[in-house]
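Retro notes
What went well: the complex prediction finally ran end to end.
Inputs used:
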Amino acid sequence: MRVLVAIGCDAYDNPPLQPLAGAENDAATIFEHLVAENWGEYDQAQSKLLLSPTMAALRSTIDAALFCDPPIEELTFFFAGHGGVKDNSYFLCLKDTEVDRMSLNALSMTQLFGWITEAKIRHTNLIVDACHAGGVVHDIGVLLNPNVIGKAGSLAISILAAAGSDEYAAESDGAGHCTGALLSCLKGETPVQTTRPSLDLVEVGQVVSRTMQGTGQSPVCWGINLFGVSKLAKNPRFSGGSAHISETFPGLASDDAGNEHIRAASDAIWEQYLSLTKEFDADRFLDVVQPVCANLEEEPAVASAFIMGLAATFGARIAATGDQFDVAILKSACAVALLPMAASSTHCADAIMQLSKEVVASIGEGTDQLLADLAEDNYALISKDGGIADFYFLPLRLMSILGWLGAAVHIQTIGGGSTALIVPKAADLVRLIMAHYTNSIVPVSDELTPYYLSFAAAADALGCEEELEEISGLLLTILHQRGGRIADSALSGEDALRFLTAVTEERYDEFRNILANPTSLLPAVLLVMDQRGLTDIADGAMKGFDHTNINIFVPNDFSTFGAGLIEDGTNFSLTIGHTVFSVSDLVSEWSKIEDHLGTDAILASPAVQISSLLASLLRPDRVAWFLVAGQAANTS
Amino acid sequence: MTPFRYRSRIKEFNEAFTKQVGAELQKRREEFISSRNVQKFSHGRMWKTKPSEHGDEAGEMQALSFEMLSRFDDVVNHDLSKFVEARNRLVVGLMEQFQVSLYQTISQSTEKSGNTVAVGPGKSPAEAFLAALRMIEFGIDENGEVSLPQIHMGRDAFKKTVVDLEMQGPEFKERVEQVKAEKSELARQRERERLAKFPPAWEGDLL
């Protein structure tokens, strides 16, 4: 069941709380749109509109509306009126509220969260159009406190607060500004998205925040969908048919085992969510969500709903930081979390395909951003706080960008989509990078390999054949100068500095423990050069790589390709000058691996291919070698 | 529940301890195998390589494990000698397993190729040493220099061999030197043949 409780409080009995003019109107308009006009498909009988209620009236309404059997799946709680922070807790002020005894006659967030938890509500949308509403955030600690929420409690909540904790929420002409912006989204006057039939509060909130920029009021919006994508209202702008609210949380019965696995990880998920404003760490995210998905292997519909919910809310929060590549990384991590079930569950395969479309969209937006940034400043790709560390990290950054551009092309190709939108801008960006940053195309670390291979396999589609040849030549030349020595994947910052010291002082022997031995980048470059018809040039370098160990790792089962450690698989390991001498020797060994990859039944699934590719970009100690399998050598 | 858990600092401490043990193991391992011959694999238990005349085209990695026990009493009594002892036991325990695994692998390989010398009645340790030298192919290191074989022996066998070698006359030493010279020349010849298998190299560093 879906329930809306809308409260608008214009009348205040006790000074200094002054009467308002638009709060009742706001609540009534929201109620009218979502309940009476049925744009939210909320239960008509159970949903309530309260105009200037007292605390007692609110309690009795909550008792009737929230505590029902079966428990409410999705609750939307709307409040317009006065609000404020007292003793580090946020209160909603009601008709009989007295500011010196708020704990008695105002509604605290602690109290509200307690009710939500006790009523076992699956997901709550909380909209507060009141002054200092960002102060609600102060109470997030309440959500994380197990004494308050109890074991059976819901931790899934999305919040739109009309103003920052130090701001006032404005109203004019009998309507709150934030509610006005919200209604504009709900009615389709302001577009939010066109791809899904319903709207999620977090994505609506991001648009509301953007439209209110510069008004002196900065709405705060955040939240986590733990049990699937929440559905605030139907999406009037949906382009794929009629807008509707689909089954809210498929397969999630209130006392389902799946719920417990999700709840058990909820603290860690919240922790990740709250730290998103610093940097999104895909590895840490996967460390938290992969075990949950592993526990949900028997319930793939629940797993995919869980992951799609996280993708929506985490994605919106990361998007607010302005880094679209980080959004692509988050969506990719979500797809990788479902990889173990991609071949066996259509729910998970469909979710991966949906997420991969969103990855492409984010890469597209990120590319637009970078093109604009580079048009303004040639040095836009240098980290503003990186300093000399960019001697090591800029080459990584450049190859990462190339790899993700390649991934966008692969996703479209594997998924049967069009590359017409992404290719022109991606090719422009590749050319700009090559125009300004050629000297930073340097093989600093073996973790370049998956990005290089992703770009290489997409170069034809991008029309960047010449750029690929130049990049391959640069990598090979510097690898040759360094005798095949390259840093191991994922070095700490301290070890990265040690590696650069080893390179500049040619003291490789003292730093062997941070070198990649064997390396995957060298065989990747040699194979790509062979496929581009540059075998003769690559052959000329082989003697310089004498004694270099090279490796191509292939898992037994690509469903495991996203795991932190892939236990079952084979390292095809060769030593130049011992088992291989020429590029053709390597190609001959590669052809056996290629045959093996060509017959891999699990890899035939597009969802597995896409999420395996994404896994290699998120955890670059593995390489999606299948990208270059089946590509005949170009002898022209 | 234990209060004051210092979770993150304890985690850091344990990670540092693991690193310390790892560094000590690396130091000990280098007594047997040069670090340039040590490879690190991130994933997978199996490996394959191109079949060679010596075989060994496929294999499976072996896990070495050693259990370390810290007694509550030792901790409560703050007996730091037990802490050092535990760390040393861990290093020694893992190294012993490594050595066993290393010598087993070499033994299996030499038995397969027939490169074995039996020391017994009628064959002195010095003669066995010379016979072994004749069987071994010398290598060439990365700098193009001949690298002489390493000799690993049990303590008693080593003592006996050294005593017996010292008792040999100049004629024996001459035979040893002759074998070394022949083997070195063969190694250089093989190295020339090996390097000839490379395609022509670039002129200088130019692509």
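What we learned: Residues 80-113 of chain B form the longest helix (34 residues).
What to try next: split runs per interface for comparison.
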